[in-house]
Amino acid sequence: MSVTDANIDETSASESAMKAAADAMRDAAATAADHAAKVRATLSDTGPRAIRTASRLTYTTSYMTSYSIVYAAVFIAHLLPQDNALVQGLYDGGVAARDALKGRND
After folding, report:
1. Would the pLDDT of 62 be above 90?
2. Spatial CB neighbours of 81, under 8 Å, sequence gap ≥ 6
3. Residue 39: strand, helix, or coil
4. Can you tell me the distance from the alpha carbon of 103 to that of 99, in angstroms, rounded to the nearest whole number?
């Protein structure tokens, strides 16, 4: 083998290596772009989902709190005897509070 043939073989091996490296870089860039698009799509869907979840949690917590307070108050009111000073005072106080609120809104 002559020096010229060795140089040609070395050049062609070098070109093959460079071509393989370029192909690998192109494939890596395409894969990275695909992955970035998938991440963007996932994140754009995550925001509204998080807001919906927080909204449902807030609604459920508020509902359960108000239900338990009102249910307990009604349950206790039904346990008390109806014809006594305590029940009459609670009733009159409730009516007075309602009337005061009506006066503020008018």
Report:
1. yes
2. 87
3. helix
4. 6
